[in-house]
## 1
Amino acid sequence: MPAGTNEIFDVVVIGGGPAGATAATDLARAGHKVLLLDKEGRIKPCGGAIPPRLVRDYQIPEEQIVARVSTARIVAPSGREVDMPIDGGYVAMVDRKDFDPWLRNRAALAGATYRAGSFEKLGRDAQGRATISYRPKGAASGPEGLEQVTTKLVIGADGARSEVARQGLPGEKVPFVFAYHEIVRAPKAGECAAAEQSAYDPVRCDVYYKAKHSPDFYGWVFPHGESASIGTGSAQKGFSLRNATSDLRAAAGLQDVETLRREGAPIPLRALKRWDNGRDLLLTGDAAGVVAPASGEGIYYAMLSGQLAAEVTAKVLATGDAKALAGARKAFMKEHGKTFWILGIMQYFWYKNDKRRERFVSMCKDPDVQRLTWEAYMNKKLVRRKPAAHVKIFIKDMAHLLRLTSPN
Protein backbone atom coordinates (compact mmCIF):
# COMPACT_ATOMS: atom_id res chain seq x y z
CA MET A 1 0.00 0.00 0.00
CA PRO A 2 1.39 3.47 -0.89
CA ALA A 3 2.72 5.62 1.92
CA GLY A 4 0.64 8.55 3.14
CA THR A 5 -2.70 6.79 2.58
CA ASN A 6 -4.17 8.21 5.80
CA GLU A 7 -3.48 11.85 4.89
CA ILE A 8 -6.65 13.76 4.06
CA PHE A 9 -6.71 17.23 2.48
CA ASP A 10 -9.49 19.65 1.70
CA VAL A 11 -8.01 20.31 -1.73
CA VAL A 12 -5.16 18.80 -3.73
CA VAL A 13 -3.84 21.12 -6.45
CA ILE A 14 -1.90 19.27 -9.14
CA GLY A 15 0.47 21.59 -10.98
CA GLY A 16 2.38 24.53 -9.51
CA GLY A 17 2.45 27.02 -12.37
CA PRO A 18 0.70 30.42 -12.15
CA ALA A 19 -2.81 28.89 -12.04
CA GLY A 20 -2.16 26.11 -9.55
CA ALA A 21 0.06 28.17 -7.26
CA THR A 22 -2.50 31.00 -7.17
CA ALA A 23 -5.34 28.61 -6.32
CA ALA A 24 -3.26 26.98 -3.57
CA THR A 25 -2.24 30.35 -2.12
CA ASP A 26 -5.79 31.67 -1.94
CA LEU A 27 -7.20 28.47 -0.45
CA ALA A 28 -4.43 28.24 2.15
CA ARG A 29 -4.93 31.88 3.13
CA ALA A 30 -8.61 31.08 3.64
CA GLY A 31 -7.63 28.40 6.16
CA HIS A 32 -8.12 25.25 4.10
CA LYS A 33 -5.79 22.27 4.23
CA VAL A 34 -4.15 22.26 0.80
CA LEU A 35 -1.58 20.06 -0.91
CA LEU A 36 0.23 21.63 -3.86
CA LEU A 37 1.89 18.96 -5.99
CA ASP A 38 4.26 19.95 -8.78
CA LYS A 39 6.62 18.12 -11.07
CA GLU A 40 9.72 20.23 -10.61
CA GLY A 41 12.32 20.81 -13.29
CA ARG A 42 10.07 21.79 -16.19
CA ILE A 43 10.11 25.42 -17.33
CA LYS A 44 7.31 26.41 -19.69
CA PRO A 45 8.37 28.22 -22.89
CA CYS A 46 6.95 31.68 -22.38
CA GLY A 47 7.76 35.21 -23.46
CA GLY A 48 7.04 36.25 -19.87
CA ALA A 49 4.94 39.36 -20.54
CA ILE A 50 2.50 40.39 -17.83
CA PRO A 51 0.24 43.49 -17.75
CA PRO A 52 0.29 46.08 -14.96
CA ARG A 53 -3.10 44.81 -13.81
CA LEU A 54 -1.55 41.44 -12.94
CA VAL A 55 1.28 43.15 -11.04
CA ARG A 56 -1.31 45.08 -9.01
CA ASP A 57 -3.94 42.39 -8.52
CA TYR A 58 -1.52 39.63 -7.54
CA GLN A 59 1.06 41.75 -5.71
CA ILE A 60 4.09 40.83 -7.80
CA PRO A 61 7.24 42.24 -6.14
CA GLU A 62 9.73 44.40 -8.00
CA GLU A 63 12.46 41.75 -7.83
CA GLN A 64 10.40 39.40 -10.03
CA ILE A 65 10.15 41.99 -12.82
CA VAL A 66 13.25 41.53 -14.97
CA ALA A 67 12.38 44.22 -17.54
CA ARG A 68 9.80 46.92 -18.27
CA VAL A 69 8.88 47.17 -21.93
CA SER A 70 7.82 50.52 -23.38
CA THR A 71 7.32 49.55 -27.05
CA ALA A 72 6.26 46.62 -29.21
CA ARG A 73 7.78 46.35 -32.67
CA ILE A 74 5.71 44.44 -35.24
CA VAL A 75 7.73 43.07 -38.18
CA ALA A 76 5.84 42.32 -41.40
CA PRO A 77 6.64 39.49 -43.84
CA SER A 78 8.28 42.10 -46.09
CA GLY A 79 10.56 43.19 -43.25
CA ARG A 80 8.69 46.44 -42.71
CA GLU A 81 8.64 47.51 -39.05
CA VAL A 82 5.79 49.15 -37.16
CA ASP A 83 6.40 50.44 -33.65
CA MET A 84 3.58 50.51 -31.10
CA PRO A 85 4.76 52.68 -28.18
CA ILE A 86 2.99 52.35 -24.85
CA ASP A 87 1.82 55.81 -23.89
CA GLY A 88 2.34 56.31 -20.18
CA GLY A 89 2.56 52.61 -19.28
CA TYR A 90 4.68 49.49 -19.54
CA VAL A 91 4.57 45.74 -19.97
CA ALA A 92 6.35 43.88 -17.19
CA MET A 93 8.52 40.88 -18.07
CA VAL A 94 9.18 37.87 -15.83
CA ASP A 95 11.35 34.79 -16.28
CA ARG A 96 9.37 31.62 -15.63
CA LYS A 97 12.52 29.92 -14.33
CA ASP A 98 12.31 32.18 -11.27
CA PHE A 99 8.68 33.32 -11.32
CA ASP A 100 7.01 29.91 -10.96
CA PRO A 101 9.16 28.77 -7.99
CA TRP A 102 8.45 32.11 -6.32
CA LEU A 103 4.71 31.54 -6.76
CA ARG A 104 4.99 28.03 -5.29
CA ASN A 105 6.98 29.34 -2.35
CA ARG A 106 4.34 32.00 -1.74
CA ALA A 107 1.73 29.25 -1.58
CA ALA A 108 3.84 27.38 0.98
CA LEU A 109 4.30 30.53 3.05
CA ALA A 110 0.52 30.98 2.99
CA GLY A 111 0.14 27.56 4.60
CA ALA A 112 -0.15 25.12 1.70
CA THR A 113 1.77 21.85 1.92
CA TYR A 114 4.13 21.79 -1.06
CA ARG A 115 5.58 18.57 -2.47
CA ALA A 116 7.67 17.92 -5.54
CA GLY A 117 6.35 14.89 -7.37
CA SER A 118 4.61 13.52 -10.43
CA PHE A 119 0.88 12.86 -10.51
CA GLU A 120 0.14 9.23 -11.42
CA LYS A 121 -3.47 8.27 -10.76
CA LEU A 122 -6.84 9.62 -9.74
CA GLY A 123 -8.83 7.01 -7.81
CA ARG A 124 -11.56 6.56 -5.22
CA ASP A 125 -11.55 5.20 -1.69
CA ALA A 126 -14.29 3.06 -0.10
CA GLN A 127 -16.31 6.18 0.76
CA GLY A 128 -16.09 7.56 -2.78
CA ARG A 129 -13.61 10.28 -1.96
CA ALA A 130 -10.91 11.16 -4.50
CA THR A 131 -7.47 9.67 -3.98
CA ILE A 132 -4.31 11.00 -5.58
CA SER A 133 -1.38 8.68 -6.20
CA TYR A 134 1.89 10.44 -6.98
CA ARG A 135 5.59 9.68 -7.21
CA PRO A 136 7.75 11.97 -5.07
CA LYS A 137 10.78 13.48 -6.75
CA GLY A 138 13.62 10.96 -6.63
CA ALA A 139 11.40 8.05 -5.55
CA ALA A 140 11.91 4.54 -6.87
CA SER A 141 10.03 3.41 -9.94
CA GLY A 142 7.21 0.91 -9.57
CA PRO A 143 4.34 0.74 -7.05
CA GLU A 144 6.69 0.89 -4.07
CA GLY A 145 7.71 4.44 -5.02
CA LEU A 146 4.17 5.82 -4.97
CA GLU A 147 2.49 7.82 -2.24
CA GLN A 148 -1.23 8.41 -1.91
CA VAL A 149 -3.44 11.01 -0.25
CA THR A 150 -7.20 11.46 0.02
CA THR A 151 -8.93 14.73 -0.74
CA LYS A 152 -12.36 16.30 -0.80
CA LEU A 153 -11.62 18.24 -4.01
CA VAL A 154 -9.06 18.16 -6.83
CA ILE A 155 -7.84 21.10 -8.90
CA GLY A 156 -6.07 20.04 -12.10
CA ALA A 157 -3.53 22.71 -13.07
CA ASP A 158 -1.09 20.41 -14.84
CA GLY A 159 -0.94 22.25 -18.14
CA ALA A 160 -1.98 21.56 -21.69
CA ARG A 161 -2.66 17.86 -22.34
CA SER A 162 -3.50 17.55 -18.66
CA GLU A 163 -3.21 14.04 -17.25
CA VAL A 164 -5.74 15.00 -14.57
CA ALA A 165 -8.21 15.93 -17.32
CA ARG A 166 -7.48 12.74 -19.25
CA GLN A 167 -8.32 10.60 -16.21
CA GLY A 168 -11.04 12.68 -14.58
CA LEU A 169 -12.74 14.65 -17.36
CA PRO A 170 -12.02 12.91 -20.67
CA GLY A 171 -13.55 13.52 -24.05
CA GLU A 172 -12.94 17.03 -25.32
CA LYS A 173 -10.10 17.65 -27.77
CA VAL A 174 -8.59 21.11 -28.02
CA PRO A 175 -6.31 22.36 -30.84
CA PHE A 176 -2.76 23.30 -29.83
CA VAL A 177 0.07 25.52 -30.94
CA PHE A 178 3.44 24.00 -30.16
CA ALA A 179 5.76 26.65 -28.76
CA TYR A 180 9.53 26.57 -28.55
CA HIS A 181 12.00 29.17 -27.36
CA GLU A 182 15.63 29.64 -26.50
CA ILE A 183 16.75 31.78 -23.59
CA VAL A 184 19.94 33.58 -24.55
CA ARG A 185 22.29 36.00 -22.87
CA ALA A 186 21.13 39.53 -23.64
CA PRO A 187 23.47 41.10 -26.19
CA LYS A 188 25.68 44.04 -25.40
CA ALA A 189 25.58 47.22 -27.47
CA GLY A 190 26.84 46.59 -30.99
CA GLU A 191 26.46 42.79 -30.94
CA CYS A 192 23.46 42.89 -33.31
CA ALA A 193 25.06 44.92 -36.08
CA ALA A 194 24.40 42.24 -38.73
CA ALA A 195 20.66 41.96 -38.00
CA GLU A 196 18.07 42.18 -40.78
CA GLN A 197 15.98 44.33 -38.46
CA SER A 198 17.03 47.10 -36.09
CA ALA A 199 19.25 46.08 -33.19
CA TYR A 200 17.95 44.39 -30.06
CA ASP A 201 16.44 46.79 -27.54
CA PRO A 202 16.15 45.78 -23.83
CA VAL A 203 12.88 47.73 -23.45
CA ARG A 204 11.17 46.57 -26.65
CA CYS A 205 9.27 43.39 -27.55
CA ASP A 206 9.70 42.32 -31.20
CA VAL A 207 6.99 40.25 -32.87
CA TYR A 208 7.68 38.70 -36.29
CA TYR A 209 4.87 37.79 -38.69
CA LYS A 210 6.72 35.84 -41.37
CA ALA A 211 6.13 32.33 -42.76
CA LYS A 212 9.76 31.25 -42.32
CA HIS A 213 9.45 32.00 -38.60
CA SER A 214 5.90 30.63 -38.27
CA PRO A 215 3.37 29.73 -40.98
CA ASP A 216 0.35 30.20 -38.70
CA PHE A 217 1.42 32.01 -35.51
CA TYR A 218 4.36 34.36 -34.90
CA GLY A 219 7.96 34.55 -33.73
CA TRP A 220 9.19 36.75 -30.91
CA VAL A 221 12.21 38.34 -29.29
CA PHE A 222 11.35 39.46 -25.76
CA PRO A 223 13.80 41.08 -23.30
CA HIS A 224 14.32 39.54 -19.87
CA GLY A 225 16.90 41.86 -18.39
CA GLU A 226 20.17 39.96 -18.49
CA SER A 227 18.67 37.42 -20.88
CA ALA A 228 16.15 37.31 -23.74
CA SER A 229 13.51 34.87 -24.99
CA ILE A 230 13.62 34.05 -28.72
CA GLY A 231 10.95 31.67 -29.93
CA THR A 232 8.10 30.74 -32.17
CA GLY A 233 5.01 28.56 -32.33
CA SER A 234 3.01 26.62 -34.88
CA ALA A 235 0.16 24.14 -35.09
CA GLN A 236 1.48 22.86 -38.43
CA LYS A 237 2.79 19.32 -38.21
CA GLY A 238 6.30 18.89 -39.56
CA PHE A 239 7.23 22.55 -39.18
CA SER A 240 10.65 22.74 -37.49
CA LEU A 241 10.43 25.12 -34.55
CA ARG A 242 14.16 24.78 -33.88
CA ASN A 243 15.08 25.72 -37.45
CA ALA A 244 12.59 28.60 -37.40
CA THR A 245 14.08 29.88 -34.14
CA SER A 246 17.55 29.63 -35.61
CA ASP A 247 16.37 31.73 -38.58
CA LEU A 248 14.78 34.21 -36.19
CA ARG A 249 18.00 34.54 -34.20
CA ALA A 250 19.83 35.33 -37.43
CA ALA A 251 17.20 37.91 -38.41
CA ALA A 252 17.56 39.59 -35.02
CA GLY A 253 21.36 39.40 -35.06
CA LEU A 254 21.38 37.07 -32.04
CA GLN A 255 22.82 33.95 -33.63
CA ASP A 256 26.16 34.27 -31.86
CA VAL A 257 25.06 35.14 -28.32
CA GLU A 258 25.23 32.41 -25.67
CA THR A 259 22.27 30.05 -25.36
CA LEU A 260 21.32 29.47 -21.73
CA ARG A 261 18.47 26.98 -22.10
CA ARG A 262 15.88 25.59 -24.52
CA GLU A 263 12.22 24.80 -23.78
CA GLY A 264 9.15 23.60 -25.65
CA ALA A 265 5.52 22.72 -24.89
CA PRO A 266 2.00 22.72 -26.39
CA ILE A 267 -0.24 25.74 -25.82
CA PRO A 268 -4.05 25.35 -26.09
CA LEU A 269 -5.88 27.52 -28.61
CA ARG A 270 -9.29 27.73 -26.93
CA ALA A 271 -10.96 27.25 -23.58
CA LEU A 272 -12.56 23.89 -22.83
CA LYS A 273 -16.36 23.81 -22.87
CA ARG A 274 -16.37 22.17 -19.45
CA TRP A 275 -13.89 22.58 -16.60
CA ASP A 276 -15.43 20.40 -13.88
CA ASN A 277 -16.87 16.90 -13.42
CA GLY A 278 -19.86 18.10 -11.39
CA ARG A 279 -18.57 16.28 -8.35
CA ASP A 280 -15.10 17.05 -7.01
CA LEU A 281 -12.71 17.93 -9.84
CA LEU A 282 -12.00 21.28 -11.50
CA LEU A 283 -9.50 22.24 -14.22
CA THR A 284 -7.71 25.58 -14.37
CA GLY A 285 -4.95 27.37 -16.30
CA ASP A 286 -3.67 25.69 -19.46
CA ALA A 287 -5.48 22.52 -18.42
CA ALA A 288 -8.73 24.47 -18.91
CA GLY A 289 -7.42 26.08 -22.11
CA VAL A 290 -7.27 29.66 -20.85
CA VAL A 291 -4.66 31.03 -23.26
CA ALA A 292 -5.61 33.99 -25.42
CA PRO A 293 -5.88 33.16 -29.14
CA ALA A 294 -3.71 35.17 -31.55
CA SER A 295 -1.38 36.46 -28.81
CA GLY A 296 -0.77 33.25 -26.86
CA GLU A 297 -0.86 35.27 -23.65
CA GLY A 298 -1.51 33.03 -20.68
CA ILE A 299 -0.02 34.17 -17.36
CA TYR A 300 -2.72 36.68 -16.43
CA TYR A 301 -5.54 34.39 -17.52
CA ALA A 302 -3.95 31.46 -15.68
CA MET A 303 -3.71 33.37 -12.42
CA LEU A 304 -7.26 34.68 -12.73
CA SER A 305 -8.57 31.17 -13.43
CA GLY A 306 -6.63 29.91 -10.40
CA GLN A 307 -8.22 32.62 -8.27
CA LEU A 308 -11.68 31.66 -9.54
CA ALA A 309 -10.93 27.97 -8.92
CA ALA A 310 -10.08 28.79 -5.31
CA GLU A 311 -13.28 30.79 -4.88
CA VAL A 312 -15.62 28.07 -6.15
CA THR A 313 -13.86 25.21 -4.37
CA ALA A 314 -14.11 27.19 -1.13
CA LYS A 315 -17.86 27.47 -1.77
CA VAL A 316 -18.14 23.72 -2.26
CA LEU A 317 -16.21 23.09 0.96
CA ALA A 318 -18.55 25.46 2.82
CA THR A 319 -21.86 24.28 1.34
CA GLY A 320 -21.27 20.79 -0.04
CA ASP A 321 -22.92 21.87 -3.31
CA ALA A 322 -20.68 20.62 -6.15
CA LYS A 323 -22.69 22.64 -8.70
CA ALA A 324 -20.65 25.65 -7.58
CA LEU A 325 -17.63 24.25 -9.45
CA ALA A 326 -19.18 25.31 -12.76
CA GLY A 327 -19.04 28.91 -11.57
CA ALA A 328 -15.32 29.19 -12.32
CA ARG A 329 -15.75 28.83 -16.08
CA LYS A 330 -18.94 30.89 -16.07
CA ALA A 331 -17.24 33.81 -14.32
CA PHE A 332 -14.14 33.62 -16.50
CA MET A 333 -16.06 33.55 -19.78
CA LYS A 334 -18.37 36.35 -18.67
CA GLU A 335 -15.32 38.54 -18.14
CA HIS A 336 -13.10 37.40 -21.04
CA GLY A 337 -15.12 35.19 -23.37
CA LYS A 338 -15.79 38.03 -25.83
CA THR A 339 -12.09 38.95 -25.90
CA PHE A 340 -11.13 35.33 -26.65
CA TRP A 341 -13.80 35.17 -29.39
CA ILE A 342 -12.51 38.33 -31.07
CA LEU A 343 -8.88 37.19 -30.84
CA GLY A 344 -9.82 33.81 -32.26
CA ILE A 345 -11.46 35.44 -35.28
CA MET A 346 -8.45 37.70 -35.70
CA GLN A 347 -6.08 34.74 -35.70
CA TYR A 348 -8.25 32.81 -38.15
CA PHE A 349 -8.39 35.65 -40.68
CA TRP A 350 -5.08 37.45 -40.33
CA TYR A 351 -2.61 34.59 -39.72
CA LYS A 352 -3.62 32.63 -42.82
CA ASN A 353 -0.71 33.67 -45.04
CA ASP A 354 1.92 36.36 -45.50
CA LYS A 355 -0.28 38.54 -47.71
CA ARG A 356 -2.87 38.84 -44.95
CA ARG A 357 -0.23 39.31 -42.28
CA GLU A 358 1.31 42.14 -44.29
CA ARG A 359 -2.05 43.88 -44.16
CA PHE A 360 -2.45 43.06 -40.48
CA VAL A 361 0.85 44.80 -39.70
CA SER A 362 -0.37 47.80 -41.73
CA MET A 363 -3.39 48.02 -39.43
CA CYS A 364 -1.05 48.19 -36.44
CA LYS A 365 0.18 51.60 -37.64
CA ASP A 366 -3.24 53.11 -36.96
CA PRO A 367 -3.26 55.29 -33.79
CA ASP A 368 -6.78 54.12 -32.87
CA VAL A 369 -5.71 50.48 -33.14
CA GLN A 370 -2.63 51.10 -31.01
CA ARG A 371 -4.48 53.03 -28.32
CA LEU A 372 -7.34 50.56 -27.94
CA THR A 373 -4.98 47.57 -28.10
CA TRP A 374 -2.84 48.83 -25.25
CA GLU A 375 -5.80 49.96 -23.14
CA ALA A 376 -7.39 46.53 -23.49
CA TYR A 377 -4.12 44.73 -22.76
CA MET A 378 -3.14 46.81 -19.73
CA ASN A 379 -6.54 46.64 -18.07
CA LYS A 380 -7.71 43.27 -19.43
CA LYS A 381 -11.03 44.70 -20.53
CA LEU A 382 -12.53 45.51 -23.92
CA VAL A 383 -12.61 49.28 -24.27
CA ARG A 384 -16.27 50.26 -24.56
CA ARG A 385 -16.19 53.99 -23.94
CA LYS A 386 -15.02 54.95 -27.45
CA PRO A 387 -17.63 53.58 -29.88
CA ALA A 388 -16.56 55.89 -32.72
CA ALA A 389 -13.02 54.51 -32.59
CA HIS A 390 -14.35 50.95 -32.70
CA VAL A 391 -16.44 51.75 -35.77
CA LYS A 392 -13.42 53.30 -37.48
CA ILE A 393 -11.29 50.25 -36.70
CA PHE A 394 -13.99 47.88 -37.96
CA ILE A 395 -14.22 49.75 -41.27
CA LYS A 396 -10.43 49.80 -41.66
CA ASP A 397 -10.22 46.13 -40.75
CA MET A 398 -12.77 45.18 -43.41
CA ALA A 399 -11.05 47.40 -45.97
CA HIS A 400 -7.75 45.61 -45.36
CA LEU A 401 -9.37 42.17 -45.38
CA LEU A 402 -11.15 42.88 -48.66
CA ARG A 403 -7.98 44.48 -50.09
CA LEU A 404 -9.70 47.80 -50.68
CA THR A 405 -6.68 49.64 -49.34
CA SER A 406 -2.91 49.47 -49.78
CA PRO A 407 -0.93 47.31 -47.29
CA ASN A 408 1.73 50.03 -47.00
## 2
Amino acid sequence: MLSVVAKSKGRISHIIIYSIDRFSRSGAEAIAIASDLKKQGITILSVTQPADTSTSAGSLQQNIQLIFSQYDNDQRREKSMAGTKEQLLKGNWVTRPPMGFDRVTVNGESKIVVNKTGKLLRQAFLWKAEGLAYETIRQRLEAQGLRLYPQHLSRIFQNVFYCGLLKHEALAGKVVAGNQELLVSRELFKKVNQLLATNHHHYQHQPENDHL
Protein backbone atom coordinates (compact mmCIF):
# COMPACT_ATOMS: atom_id res chain seq x y z
CA MET A 1 0.00 0.00 0.00
CA LEU A 2 2.77 2.44 0.92
CA SER A 3 4.50 1.66 -2.37
CA VAL A 4 1.33 2.51 -4.29
CA VAL A 5 0.91 5.71 -2.28
CA ALA A 6 4.49 6.77 -2.99
CA LYS A 7 3.86 6.45 -6.74
CA SER A 8 0.49 8.22 -6.63
CA LYS A 9 2.02 11.67 -7.11
CA GLY A 10 -0.66 13.48 -5.13
CA ARG A 11 -3.66 11.54 -6.43
CA ILE A 12 -4.26 9.95 -3.00
CA SER A 13 -5.31 12.20 -0.12
CA HIS A 14 -6.64 9.74 2.49
CA ILE A 15 -5.99 6.21 3.77
CA ILE A 16 -9.24 4.97 5.32
CA ILE A 17 -9.04 2.23 7.96
CA TYR A 18 -11.51 0.62 10.36
CA SER A 19 -9.40 1.32 13.45
CA ILE A 20 -5.87 2.46 14.21
CA ASP A 21 -4.68 -1.06 15.10
CA ARG A 22 -5.66 -2.15 11.59
CA PHE A 23 -3.12 0.34 10.22
CA SER A 24 -0.20 -0.82 12.34
CA ARG A 25 0.77 -2.36 15.68
CA SER A 26 4.40 -1.24 15.50
CA GLY A 27 4.10 1.84 17.74
CA ALA A 28 6.95 4.27 17.14
CA GLU A 29 7.53 2.97 13.62
CA ALA A 30 3.85 3.56 12.79
CA ILE A 31 4.10 7.12 14.11
CA ALA A 32 7.04 7.74 11.78
CA ILE A 33 5.09 6.33 8.83
CA ALA A 34 2.06 8.47 9.67
CA SER A 35 4.29 11.53 9.93
CA ASP A 36 5.87 10.80 6.55
CA LEU A 37 2.44 10.35 4.97
CA LYS A 38 1.31 13.65 6.46
CA LYS A 39 4.25 15.40 4.77
CA GLN A 40 2.99 13.95 1.48
CA GLY A 41 -0.44 15.44 2.16
CA ILE A 42 -2.02 12.09 3.03
CA THR A 43 -4.30 11.72 6.06
CA ILE A 44 -4.95 8.46 7.92
CA LEU A 45 -8.66 8.37 8.68
CA SER A 46 -9.94 5.84 11.23
CA VAL A 47 -13.67 5.17 10.96
CA THR A 48 -14.11 4.08 14.58
CA GLN A 49 -11.42 6.32 16.14
CA PRO A 50 -11.65 9.65 14.31
CA ALA A 51 -9.01 12.28 15.03
CA ASP A 52 -8.37 15.59 13.32
CA THR A 53 -4.67 15.22 12.56
CA SER A 54 -4.54 18.71 11.06
CA THR A 55 -4.23 19.92 14.68
CA SER A 56 -1.47 19.15 17.18
CA ALA A 57 -4.03 17.72 19.63
CA GLY A 58 -5.45 15.41 16.96
CA SER A 59 -1.98 14.19 15.95
CA LEU A 60 -1.16 13.51 19.60
CA GLN A 61 -4.39 11.53 19.97
CA GLN A 62 -3.57 9.40 16.93
CA ASN A 63 0.01 8.80 18.12
CA ILE A 64 -1.28 7.65 21.53
CA GLN A 65 -3.66 5.24 19.79
CA LEU A 66 -0.76 3.83 17.74
CA ILE A 67 1.33 3.32 20.88
CA PHE A 68 -1.56 1.54 22.62
CA SER A 69 -1.98 -0.68 19.55
CA GLN A 70 1.60 -1.88 20.03
CA TYR A 71 0.98 -2.38 23.75
CA ASP A 72 -2.11 -4.47 22.95
CA ASN A 73 -0.14 -6.50 20.41
CA ASP A 74 2.66 -7.14 22.92
CA GLN A 75 0.13 -8.31 25.52
CA ARG A 76 -1.45 -10.70 23.01
CA ARG A 77 1.97 -12.12 22.15
CA GLU A 78 2.87 -12.62 25.83
CA LYS A 79 -0.39 -14.52 26.43
CA SER A 80 0.11 -16.57 23.27
CA MET A 81 3.70 -17.47 24.19
CA ALA A 82 2.64 -18.40 27.73
CA GLY A 83 -0.01 -20.75 26.33
CA THR A 84 2.47 -22.17 23.83
CA LYS A 85 5.04 -22.81 26.57
CA GLU A 86 2.45 -24.53 28.74
CA GLN A 87 1.50 -26.92 25.93
CA LEU A 88 5.14 -27.59 25.01
CA LEU A 89 6.00 -28.48 28.62
CA LYS A 90 3.19 -31.06 28.41
CA GLY A 91 4.88 -32.50 25.32
CA ASN A 92 2.35 -31.13 22.82
CA TRP A 93 3.66 -29.50 19.63
CA VAL A 94 1.29 -26.62 18.87
CA THR A 95 2.34 -25.55 15.38
CA ARG A 96 2.63 -27.39 12.09
CA PRO A 97 4.83 -30.50 12.47
CA PRO A 98 7.94 -30.81 10.30
CA MET A 99 8.23 -32.84 7.12
CA GLY A 100 7.47 -36.51 7.62
CA PHE A 101 4.59 -36.02 10.07
CA ASP A 102 0.83 -35.51 9.87
CA ARG A 103 -1.51 -34.22 12.55
CA VAL A 104 -4.54 -36.53 12.87
CA THR A 105 -7.50 -36.79 15.23
CA VAL A 106 -8.10 -40.14 16.90
CA ASN A 107 -11.14 -40.50 19.20
CA GLY A 108 -11.29 -36.71 19.52
CA GLU A 109 -7.61 -36.45 20.45
CA SER A 110 -5.01 -34.74 18.26
CA LYS A 111 -1.93 -36.84 17.50
CA ILE A 112 1.20 -36.33 15.39
CA VAL A 113 2.10 -39.46 13.45
CA VAL A 114 4.73 -40.48 10.91
CA ASN A 115 3.46 -40.40 7.33
CA LYS A 116 4.70 -41.97 4.07
CA THR A 117 7.39 -39.30 3.63
CA GLY A 118 8.49 -39.86 7.22
CA LYS A 119 9.15 -43.53 6.50
CA LEU A 120 11.52 -42.48 3.71
CA LEU A 121 13.26 -40.03 6.06
CA ARG A 122 13.62 -42.84 8.60
CA GLN A 123 15.46 -44.81 5.93
CA ALA A 124 17.62 -41.75 5.23
CA PHE A 125 18.68 -41.69 8.90
CA LEU A 126 19.66 -45.35 8.63
CA TRP A 127 21.66 -44.72 5.47
CA LYS A 128 23.46 -41.80 7.09
CA ALA A 129 24.26 -43.93 10.14
CA GLU A 130 25.88 -46.39 7.74
CA GLY A 131 28.15 -43.60 6.54
CA LEU A 132 26.57 -42.87 3.17
CA ALA A 133 27.23 -39.47 1.60
CA TYR A 134 24.53 -36.85 1.30
CA GLU A 135 24.48 -37.09 -2.49
CA THR A 136 24.01 -40.87 -2.39
CA ILE A 137 21.13 -40.52 0.10
CA ARG A 138 19.61 -37.74 -1.99
CA GLN A 139 19.69 -39.88 -5.12
CA ARG A 140 18.13 -42.85 -3.33
CA LEU A 141 15.33 -40.70 -1.93
CA GLU A 142 14.70 -39.10 -5.32
CA ALA A 143 14.43 -42.55 -6.87
CA GLN A 144 11.56 -43.19 -4.44
CA GLY A 145 9.83 -39.90 -5.24
CA LEU A 146 11.24 -37.62 -2.52
CA ARG A 147 13.43 -34.79 -3.76
CA LEU A 148 15.53 -32.96 -1.17
CA TYR A 149 18.62 -30.78 -1.25
CA PRO A 150 21.62 -31.94 0.84
CA GLN A 151 21.26 -28.80 3.01
CA HIS A 152 17.64 -29.75 3.77
CA LEU A 153 18.73 -33.27 4.67
CA SER A 154 21.33 -31.84 7.05
CA ARG A 155 18.68 -29.77 8.87
CA ILE A 156 16.42 -32.83 9.14
CA PHE A 157 19.22 -34.93 10.61
CA GLN A 158 19.82 -32.26 13.27
CA ASN A 159 16.16 -31.67 14.19
CA VAL A 160 15.47 -33.25 17.60
CA PHE A 161 11.74 -33.49 16.78
CA TYR A 162 12.50 -36.66 14.78
CA CYS A 163 13.74 -38.50 17.87
CA GLY A 164 10.79 -37.47 20.05
CA LEU A 165 12.05 -34.24 21.61
CA LEU A 166 10.76 -30.67 21.41
CA LYS A 167 12.81 -27.50 20.98
CA HIS A 168 11.11 -24.11 20.66
CA GLU A 169 11.91 -20.44 21.34
CA ALA A 170 9.18 -20.39 24.00
CA LEU A 171 11.21 -22.93 26.00
CA ALA A 172 14.24 -20.61 26.16
CA GLY A 173 16.78 -23.28 25.25
CA LYS A 174 15.16 -26.09 27.21
CA VAL A 175 14.50 -29.39 25.42
CA VAL A 176 11.55 -31.53 26.55
CA ALA A 177 10.14 -34.93 25.63
CA GLY A 178 7.30 -34.75 23.11
CA ASN A 179 4.18 -36.84 22.62
CA GLN A 180 4.67 -37.26 18.87
CA GLU A 181 5.36 -40.65 17.27
CA LEU A 182 9.07 -41.43 17.09
CA LEU A 183 10.55 -41.37 13.61
CA VAL A 184 13.94 -42.61 14.83
CA SER A 185 15.33 -43.72 18.16
CA ARG A 186 17.47 -41.33 20.19
CA GLU A 187 20.36 -43.77 19.80
CA LEU A 188 20.14 -43.58 16.01
CA PHE A 189 19.73 -39.80 16.11
CA LYS A 190 22.80 -39.46 18.32
CA LYS A 191 24.85 -41.74 16.06
CA VAL A 192 23.96 -39.71 12.97
CA ASN A 193 24.81 -36.42 14.66
CA GLN A 194 28.12 -37.78 15.92
CA LEU A 195 28.95 -38.56 12.29
CA LEU A 196 27.92 -35.06 11.26
CA ALA A 197 30.15 -33.58 13.97
CA THR A 198 33.17 -35.37 12.48
CA ASN A 199 32.26 -34.42 8.91
CA HIS A 200 35.15 -32.23 7.76
CA HIS A 201 33.26 -31.08 4.69
CA HIS A 202 31.20 -28.69 6.83
CA TYR A 203 32.25 -25.05 7.06
CA GLN A 204 34.49 -24.17 9.98
CA HIS A 205 33.63 -20.88 11.70
CA GLN A 206 36.25 -18.80 13.48
CA PRO A 207 34.39 -16.70 16.08
CA GLU A 208 37.27 -14.21 16.52
CA ASN A 209 39.67 -12.89 13.90
CA ASP A 210 42.19 -10.24 14.92
CA HIS A 211 42.87 -9.30 11.29
CA LEU A 212 39.21 -8.43 10.74
